[in-house]
């Protein structure tokens, strides 16, 4: 499958689960050119990471035991959110200093805090 077909298939697969986020064109910041900004902070988890989490979990079988994410922030929050929405159990290993859990209402089945 070509890379364009893979991207199209992934977009179709995740469409029911992620927000369609707008692109904003700005002339600001004192630059002589415009900047296009993709507003991914409007996703459920506040980042684009939910796209990858849903695509991975929807692309193949998920072990009955569930999913483990080892991440200090955005990735872990996205995996927890995707697992919850898809009905899978999830364990999240994260640093005590990370703030990712506050970004989403999704809660993994267990969260372990590491030094």
Secondary-structure blueprint of this entry?
Blueprint: H1 3-14, E1 23-26, E2 35-38, H2 49-58, E3 67-70, H3 74-86, E4 90-95, E5 110-114
Parallel strand pairs: 3-4, 4-5
Antiparallel strand pairs: 1-2
Helix pairs in contact: 1-2, 2-3
Verbal overview:
- Helix 1 (3-14) crosses helix 2 and helix 2 (49-58) packs across helix 3.
- The chain has three helices and five strands.
- The chain is an alpha/beta fold.
- The relative contact order is 0.15.
- It has a three-stranded parallel β-sheet with strand order 3-4-5, with helices on one face. It has a two-stranded antiparallel sheet with strand order 1-2.
- It has helices at 3-14, 49-58, 74-86, and strands at residues 23-26, 35-38, 67-70, 90-95, 110-114.
Query: How do the helices and strands follow one another from N- to C-terminus?
Result: HEEHEHEE
Shape field: flat
Number of helices: 3
- What percent of residues are in strands? 15-25%
Radius of gyration of CA atoms, rounded to a whole number:
16 Å
**Number of separate structural domains:** 1
Gap from first CA to last CA: 43 Å
Portion of residues in helices?
Answer: 25-40%
The chain-level structural class is: alpha/beta
